Amino acid sequence: MNSIFTSIRRTPYQSMASFLILFFTLFLSLFFFSLISFFHGILGYVETKPQVTIYFQTETREADISRIKRDIENTGKVASATYMSKESALEIYQDLNRDNPLLLEMVSADILPPSLEVYTTRPEYLQDIATFASGQNIVDEVVFQRDVVDKIVSVTNTMRLISISILVVLILVSFMVLMTTSAFKIALKKEEIQLLRLIGASRFYVRAPFLNEGVFFGFVSGTAAFSIFYGVFFYFRSFFDSYLLGISELPFFGLEAYNLYVWPPTAEYIGLSYLMTITFGISIAYVGTFLATSKYIGD
Amino acid sequence: MITFDNVSMHYNSGVSALEDVSFEIKDGDFVFLVGPSGAGKTTILRLILRELTPSTGTVAVDEFVPSEKSFKDIHKLRRSMGVIFQDFKILPDKNVRENISMSLKVSGYSNQYIKEEVERALELVGLPEKMEMFPMQLSAGEQQRVAIARAIVGERKIILADEPTGNLDPKTSWEIMKIFKKLEKTKTIILATHNADIVNSMQRRVIVMKGGKLAKDMKKGGYDF
Fold first, then answer.
1. Which terminal CB of chain A, N or C, has fewer other CB atoms within 10 Å?
2. Are B50 and B66 in contact (CB under 8 A)?
3. Inside any domain, residue A149
4. B53-78 in b/e burial notation, b at 16+ Cβ within 10 A?
5. Which of A97, A112, A144 is the last residue of a domain?
6. Residue B179 — pLDDT band, cuts 50, 70, 90?
7. What is the predicted pLDDT for the residue at B214?
8. Closest residue of A to B46, CA-based?
């Protein structure tokens, strides 16, 4: 540890450059990781919602809706179909807008359409059900939930692609900076390295202080990136709370069994984020320093 | 035992440093390497240390064959030797104890052993009271003694010294040679030098190099080329 602090003291600017580039890379990695995890959570959430909602004309009789419900159930492609009367729809509306009396005054059960919320057994049946429902003359509108899912999938994929591209560039820049700063530090200790090699130090023995320093920077940068990211996150927690009103929980890549929830973030999820950030930081720093020492410390 | 068998060394620049050199140095020998500048003395030391590999021929040091291109145990070979340089190569930011103990640390000795060995070596070179001093606080002769202490600690059986008295006044040079005399009972010593007085008065084996060739190999010789 002493040798690491001595080295930092002797090369403060190079050390700062290593720290900052790693910090920047890890902070953005954590940001993108959280964002993609969040969108996956949203995707999972949307997929558990009614996948096809069939809205009927307001004057449609319940008997006609029941007939269509039976026809849909008889296709064998439906897990469940739930009838939502005008009154039930009004109750839900009133519940959602109970803090806004003006909106409540303006709406009565008569203007809300009755609907059927249909879950299919497999996603590919959604289109069949939607097509069948659209062909009925008493149906006013079919909201095909798959469209929303497809949009989220598309956004998530685009985001993943952008994130990976940015991270690849950042990782390459990190390697370059780490290699350059390590090369500078190696040059400063050239005499000592030559002497160590002549008195029988193995290559690993000579490399070890540089690698240790790299690991130290990876750990410190990762911890700093994590602390600042979650500091900002919790500072804006109330904003996210209001934005995600009605969404009780978003699982992390379907790993809810391990208490891994992106929203609200569980201790397990935060712990995993920290572990991943410092592992990633240490790996980048170790590989960057390893490449530099391989190149600049000879026999 | 160190063996040179028909060793030649040609640099890429076309310069020929050694030409077909063969000799043997037995364990416990004290050998002077003499000759004019550029005769190949330092090249011989560097070949033993495996800082260089010969163009042709074989260099063997005990069980090691450092002349092989694929030789991997460089650090093990070097841990069996101590090296002393004309310019001492003492690290200025480390004190005497740290400079000497680094020679043992690289071999992975325990702290207790390192402490005892450093004290023993400093006693041998006559600097027990300077253990915590930094090189800047030492004279040239004292710095060279530190370098010798660093070369003899642990289980280093061979001492390679490249002009160890080259930067020292005659009186200090003799003090350094007295240390080598003390060491010759337990170590193999190969000492490259231009100091005729020392070679002539010590009357040890002398290998004379001239233009990269072995000119003479005398059992008890003087400075003669």
1. N
2. yes
3. no
4. ebeebebbbeebbbbeeeeeebbebb
5. A144
6. confident
7. 93
8. A198
What's the pLDDT at A104?
Answer: 74
Comparing CB atoms, the residue among A195, A203, A205 nearest residue B89 is A195
Decide if A299 touches B, using CB distance below 8 A: yes
Kindly provide the ipTM of the predicted complex, given to two decimals: 0.87
Q: What is the CATH number of the domain that holds A113?
A: 3.30.70.3040
Token representation of residue A98 = 């109970």
* Shared-domain flag, residues A25 and A57: no
Say whether A199 and B82 touch across the interface (CB within 8 A). Answer: yes
Locate B30 and state its tokens.
């004290």
Computed over every residue of chain B, the mean pLDDT equals 90
- Together in a domain, A172 and A283: yes
How confident is the model over B98-151, as pLDDT tens digits?
Answer: 999 999 999 999 999 999 999 999 998 888 899 999 999 999 889 988 999 999
Q: Is the minimum CB–CB distance between A267 and chain B shorter than 8 Å?
A: no
Are B165 and B176 in contact by the 8 Å Cβ rule? The answer is yes
What confidence tens digit (pLDDT) does each residue in B75-97 have? Answer: 999 999 999 988 888 999 899 99
CA distance A191 to chain B (A): 8
Domain boundaries, position A292? 2-46+160-296
Q: How would residue B48 be classed by pLDDT, with cut points 50, 70 and 90?
A: very high
Q: Which of B80, B94, B106, B156 to mutate to test the interface with A (most CBs of A within 10 A)?
A: B106
Decide if A299 and B74 are in contact by the 8 Å CB cutoff: yes
Q: What is the pLDDT of residues A119-149, one digit of tens each?
A: 887 666 778 888 888 888 888 888 876 667 6
Query: Shortest CA distance to B41 belongs to which of B156, B213, B176?
Result: B213
Q: What is the Cα–Cα distance from A248 to A21, expressed in whole angstroms?
A: 37
Asked if the Cβ–Cβ distance from B106 to A191 is below 8 Å, we say no
**Min CA distance, B138 vs chain A (Å)?**
19
Nearest neighbour of A199 by CB, restricted to B51, B76, B106: B106
Let me know whether A9 and A99 are in one domain.
no
Q: What is the mean pLDDT of residues A159-184?
A: 85
Instruction: Determine the 3-state secondary structure of B217 from DSSP.
Output: strand
Q: Give the count of domains, chain A.
A: 2
A201 touches chain B (CB under 8 A): yes
Cβ contact, residue pair A203, B75, below 8 Å:
yes
Does residue A260 sit in the same domain as residue A130? no
Chain B contact set for A200 (CB, 8 A) = 75-81, 103, 106-107
- Phi, psi torsion values for B32, nearest 5 degrees: -95, 135
pLDDT at A144: 74
- What are A50's two structure tokens? 């009614």
Asked whether residue A236 is domain-assigned, the answer is: yes
Let me know whether A39 and A61 are in one domain. no
Per-residue DSSP letter, A114 = P
> Tokens 């059986």 belong to which residue?
B157
Residues of A in contact with B83 (CB under 8 A): 198-199
